[in-house]
Design a protein that fits this description.
Length: 435
C-alpha cells in the first residue's frame, strides 16, 4: 500500500521508515525544505540509534521517498498519516493543534481518491472530530475516514518499539477504515502484536492516560526515594520489592532527577487542560506535574548541599550527561537545565559533557562550559554529578577522577553506582534515595 506521512519529525520519520521496511511504499512529507534536502541526502535531522541505516536501506530500495509537495505526496495513498508536532501552547499548556488543523485542511483540498486520514500526533480527545469537519468543510468529494493511531515510541529505542510494540491502538468505528489500518499493520499482526480496535475518542485518550500513568509511576518512586533518604531505607531495594508484585511491575520505578523529554511534561499538561475543559479534574496528575517540576531544582540544591560549604561561590561542578535520558540528543525539559541554573545562581562554576547532547544544550545553557569529554569536564571539579545514565558513564576510571578532581565527591542522580563500592574507592557518594 502507498502510505503518506505528513510531518517528518521524530514520530513521522521513524514510523515512515519502519512502514517502508515492512514493504509499504512510503512518502514522508515535510514543509521544511532544509529537512527534506538533508533526508534526501541521507542525513538524519535527529539522533536515533539505527535510524540512519534504516532510512538509507529503504531509500535505496525506492520504498521511502521525501518531498515538500503535499498534493503529490498524498496522491494515491491509501493511508495518510498526520504526524506533525502538537507543542504546548504558550501560556496555558493546551496542545497547540494549529499544525494538525493546517494539514487536515490541505489534505481536504487535495484529496481526490478514497483514503483513511490517520492522526498519529498526540492530540486531545475530540481532535479527530475536528479533523473530520475540517476535511468535510474543504469540499472534498471522495470517500474518507478519520482514524486515531497513537504512537508509544520511546526516544533511543524507537525502532524496536515500533517493530515490537506492546500493542497497536486503532481508533475508528468505520469498518472500511479498520480494514485499511489492518492492511497497514499486517506485518505486525503476523508477529502477534496485540491490536486494539476502539472508538476514536478512546484511542486519543489512551495515549494521554498511558503517558500520565507512567509519569505518575516515576514521580511516585521519586517521592518514596526522598522518604528513603530521611528514613534510612534504600530506594533500589524498595523499588525492586514493590516492582516484583505482578500487579505493579518493575518498569518505570527507577528513581532519578525527575522526568523530562518531549512527551511526559507536555502531555501531562495538555491532559490537565482537557480534564479542566470537560469539568473532570485529574488531581493526581496535577500533583505529579507540581512534584516533578519542583524536583528538578531540588536536585541542584542537593548538589549544593553535598558540596558541604555554606558558601559555594567559586566551587566547580562537572555535570555528566545533559540530555533528558541516554541515547538521544533531545534536551527538551531535561532536568540538567534546572540543575545547572540552580548551581549557577548559587555562584558555582559548571562544566559539562554529554555524548550527543552538547550541540543542542550549548545555546540553552549559556553559563555552562561544554568540554570535549568526561575527564576534561571533571578536571578541578569539587563534585562530579551523573545527571544522565549514558553507558559511557557506567565504568568511569575513578583513579583518574581522583587525580583530576579537586575533591572525590560523586553525586549520582541515576543510582548507576553502588554506595559501598564508591566508598571503597575513596569517594564521598551521594545517590538518590539511599539513606
Ligand atoms: C515516553 C513514553 O515512554 C513513550 O511511550 C511515549 O511515546 C513518549 O514518551 P520518552 O519521552 O522517549 O518516551 O522517554 P522515556 O524512556 O519514557 O523516559 C521519560 C523520562 O522519564 C526520562 O526523563 C527518564 O529519565 C525518566 N524516567 C523513566 C525515570 O526517571 N525513571 C524511570 O523509571 C523511567
Amino acid at each position: 500500500m502507498k502510505i503518506a506521512m505528513v510531518g517528518s519529525g521524530y514520530v513521522g520519520l521513524v514510523s515512515g521508515a519502519c512502514f517502508a521496511d515492512f514493504g509499504h511504499d512510503v512518502v514522508c512529507i515535510d514543509k521544511d525544505p532544509g529537512k527534506i534536502a538533508r533526508l534526501q541526502a541521507g542525513e538524519m535531522p535527529i539522533y536515533e540509534p539505527g535510524l540512519e541505516e534504516l532510512v538509507r536501506r529503504n531509500a535505496m530500495s525506492g520504498r521511502l521517498t521525501f518531498t515538500t509537495d503535499l498534493p503529490a505526496g498524498i496522491s494515491g495513498a491509501g493511508a495518510i498519516f498526520i504526524a506533525v508536532g502538537t507543542p504546548s501552547r504558550r501560556g496555558d499548556g493546551h496542545a497547540d493543534l494549529s499544525f494538525v488543523h493546517a494539514v487536515a485542511e490541505e489534505v481536504g483540498q487535495h484529496l481526490d481518491h478514497p483514503a483513511v486520514v490517520v492522526t498519529k500526533s498526540t492530540v486531545p480527545v475530540g481532535t479527530g472530530d475536528a479533523v473530520e469537519r475540517i476535511i468535510a468543510d474543504s469540499g472534498t468529494k471522495v470517500r474518507y475516514a478519520v482514524a486515531s493511531n497513537p504512537e508509544f515510541l520511546r526516544e533511543g529505542a524507537a525502532i524496536a518499539d515500533f517493530k515490537r510494540p506492546d500493542r497497536i491502538v486503532i481508533g475508528s468505528d468505520d469498518e472500511w477504515a479498520r480494514g485499511v489500518m489492518s492492511e497497514v499493520y499486517r506485518p505486525l499482526f503476523l508477529n502477534k502484536a496485540p491490536i486494539q480496535f476502539t472508538s476514536r475518542r478512546s484511542a486519543e485518550l489512551i495515549k494521554y492516560a498511558a503517558n500520565a500513568f507512567l509519569a505518575t509511576k516515576i514521580t511516585f518512586i521519586n517521592e518514596i526515594a526522598d522518604l528513603c533518604e530521611k528514613s534510612g531505607a534504600d530506594v533500589q531495594d524498595v523499588a525492586r520489592g514493590v516492582g516484583l508484585d505482578g500487579r505493579i511491575g518493575s518498569k518505570f520505578l527507577h528513581a532519578g532527577p525527575g522526568y523530562g523529554g518531549s512527551c511526559f511534561p507536555k502531555d501531562t499538561l495538555a491532559l490537565l487542560k482537557t480534564a479542566e475543559d470537560f469539568g473532570s479534574p485529574l488531581r493526581i496528575v496535577e500533583a505529579v506535574v507540581k512534584v516533578n517540576d519542583s524536583r528538578k531544582r531540588a536536585m541542584g540544591r542537593k548538589v549544593i548541599e553535598a558540596l558541604g560549604a555554606s558558601d559555594v561561590r567559586g566551587k566547580r561542578v562537572a555535570l555528566l550527561g545533559l540530555t533528558f535520558k541516554p541515547n538521544t540528543d533531545d534536551m527538551r525539559d531535561s532536568p540538567s537545565l534546572a540543575i545547572a541554573q540552580t548551581l549557577i545562581d548559587a555562584g558555582v562554576e559548571v562544566t559539562a559533557y554529554d555524548p550527543e547532547g552538547m550541540e543542542l544544550a550549548g545555546p540553552m545553557m549559556p553559563g555552562v562550559a561544554m568540554m570535549k569529554d568526561a575527564y576534561a569536564a571533571i578536571e578541578h571539579a569539587d563534585a562530579v554529578v551523573i545527571v544522565t545514565e549514558w553507558d559511557a558513564f557506567r565504568a568511569l576510571d575513578f583513579a583518574r577522577i581522583k587525580q583530576l578532581a579537586r575533591a572525590p565527591l560523586l553525586v549520582d542522580l541515576r543510582n548507576v553506582y553502588e554506595p559501598e563500592d564508591m566508598r571503597a574507592a575513596g569517594f564521598d557518594y551521594v545517590g538518590i534515595g539511599r539513606g
